[in-house]
Amino acid sequence: MLRLLRYLKEYKKRAIMTPVWVILETVCELFLTVTIGRFIDELSNTETTMALIWSYGLRLIVIALLCLVFGALSGWESVKASSGLSKNLRDAMFDRIQDFSFTNIDRFSTNSLVTRMTTDVVNVQNAIMMMLRVAAKAPVTIVCALVMAFSINWQIGLVYIILIPILLVALLVIAKVTHPIFRRVFRTYDRLNGVVRENLHGIRVVKGFVREDYEAEKFKGISEDIRRDFTKAETTIAFNPFCMQFCIYLCLVLISWLSARAIVGASGGGISMTTGDLQNLITYAMMILMSLMLLSMIYVMTMISRECVNRINEVLAERPTIVSPDGAETEIENGDIVFENVGFSYTDDPGKLCLSGIDLHIESGETIGIIGGTGSGKSSLVQLIPRLYDATVGSVKVAGRDVRSYDVAALRDAVAVVLQKNVLFAGTIKENLRWGNPDATDAEIAEVCRLAQADSFISQFPDGYDAHIEQGGTNVSGGQKQRLCIARALLKRPKVLILDDSTSAVDTRTDALIRKAFREYIPETTKIIIAQRISSVQDADRIIVMDGGRIDAVGTHEELLRTNKIYREVYDSQQKGGEEDE
Question: Is residue 329 part of a domain?
């Protein structure tokens, strides 16, 4: 928890002032108690006058107002400090996640990262808010009340000393039982978040196959797991207030009995007491035990937030696996690409390679087609070029230099990638396209949309390029989404353009027009096209056939038809499919 306090930053002053106001509030409460006790004694020993009542009444009002002011200030400062801490934590986590490689994200999972930035941070915020107020108030109250109680009657003061260890033992037992449960609960939250995200992401499929009831039952199952664990933990924690109340009532009985004997003189041990002293002792008992109860609440919050703190620290302590080296190169001269004995594993285990023995040279400006079955390693291969992942074995070079020697931002700015899963963000069409070039003019945007065959459907929108795109591009079709993503990539004028099955949702005519635009608009750019259709790659300068994570063959369309069995089988199956469709 202490490691997270450095994220208070500009809210540090508020965090420091909170315990100051709390201590002043506590001191005023003690003065209030002493004043009430003296008032009771004055009423018992002298003739009551209105002057006396007014005198003590005004004192009590002033002290009570001071308590109110200091309490309000401490509450205000603690809320500001804790909410500021949570804001800074979220900012820090988000900034760190932006630097993560795909390997880092795969390690945590998207669902877990979302839970850590929301639920976990809220729990830490609540714990910090209580700690800032109670952590200062409770110890000061306990110490001052004990001193005051012993100054009245040290024998009766021993009652407090006897009961405090009982409460501490109860707290330790409760903590030991509940902490593993809370740890399990927050892992279940990750699963719950995953189910919700999956359901919302695939809501069209869910409704199309009428699987709403199945998804509802899946959600209820995980929700029931959370309910059961929380019930078990909260049931255990429920013993805490029971122990507190038992100790409070026992303390009050013992104090009342011992004090009454001292007051009436039956067995006072030579120590006299007044009614006001009895009132003060009872008040001190309540203050001590209520402070212990507040400390127990902090302890419970700490138990809940302890696992949250660990999970947040894991994200903040995680170091990106892909970083720019010192003195990194920032200029990428051309799109020349070389794979030298490359092997790759998503687990960084050389014994579990999904790519192996990749030796390939792609000249700058060349158009390369890649084809192969599902799981043959096509996408894994091209993701090594912009360092979305790093090669486990061997090296990948761009423009004659190892990609690991380049500044990551510069490298990725020179390589445009249109992945299998096309992503559009909430905003206008222009705003989405300017991800490729923030400074692009309207004319440049219109030009790349024409080349990507997107201008025809954009012109049909009432707002044209200012038409709003929903999150994920849910209000455009799959083919429209692909063409917008291609236009966005073209706007970068990259050294290398990678299309990972990015024209699968468009017809063959549109696909051909897009490839023609590539040849005319960016002839100097290296173009790598991954496709399932032979027609999408047959006019490429060379075609790579992938199989089992290896390069099975490289050649032109005509050469592969003559020499490669895999390519010929794919071609024949697609040609027959086309004939059957006709």
Answer: no
CA 546, CA 272: separation in Å to the nearest integer?
97
**Residue 49, burial from CB neighbour count under 10 angstroms (0-12, 13-18, 19+):** exposed
The helix (H) or strand (E) run that includes residue 267 is none
Residue 48 shares a structural domain with residue 156 = yes
CA–CA gap between residue 26 and residue 141 (Å, rounded): 6
Give Cα separations from 582 to 175, 439, 576 (angstroms).
72, 47, 10
Dihedral sign from CA coordinates of 373, 374, 380, 382:
positive
Structural domains counted in the chain: 2
User: Is 280's pLDDT higher than 80?
Assistant: no
Residue scoring higher pLDDT (145 or 461): 461
pLDDT in tens, 58-72: 888 998 899 899 989
CB burial of residue 485 (10 Å; 0-12, 13-18, 19+): buried
460 exposed, middle or buried (CB, 10 Å; 0-12, 13-18, 19+)?
Answer: exposed
* Domain-embedded: residue 362: yes
Amino acid identity of residue 150, one-letter, is F
Q: Above 60 in pLDDT, residue 476? A: yes
Asked if residue 301 and residue 386 are part of one domain, the reply reads no
Q: What are the structure tokens assigned to 387, written together?
A: 């360092």
What CATH number has the domain bearing residue 433?
Answer: 3.40.50.300
Same domain, 422 and 521: yes
Q: What is the DSSP string of 180-247?
A: HHHHHHHHHHHHHHHHHHHHHHTHHHHHHTT-HHHHHHHHHHHHHHHHHHHHHHHHHHTHHHHHHHHH
pLDDT at 44: 64
Residues 6+ apart with CB under 8 A from 47: none
362: enclosing H helix or E strand: strand 355-362
Q: What would the pLDDT profile of 283-315 be if each residue is shown by its tens digit? A: 777 777 777 777 777 776 777 777 788 889 989
Q: What is the pTM of this model?
A: 0.71
Q: How confident is the model at residue 578 (pLDDT cuts 50, 70, 90)?
A: very low
Structure tokens at 271: 């120590």
Residue 204 maps to a domain: yes
Q: In terms of residue numbers, what domain contains 502?
A: 337-581
264 and 125, same structural domain? Answer: yes
* CA distances, 375 to each of 372, 379, 380, 417, 532 (Å): 8, 9, 9, 19, 12
Confidence of residue 89 (pLDDT cuts 50, 70, 90): very high
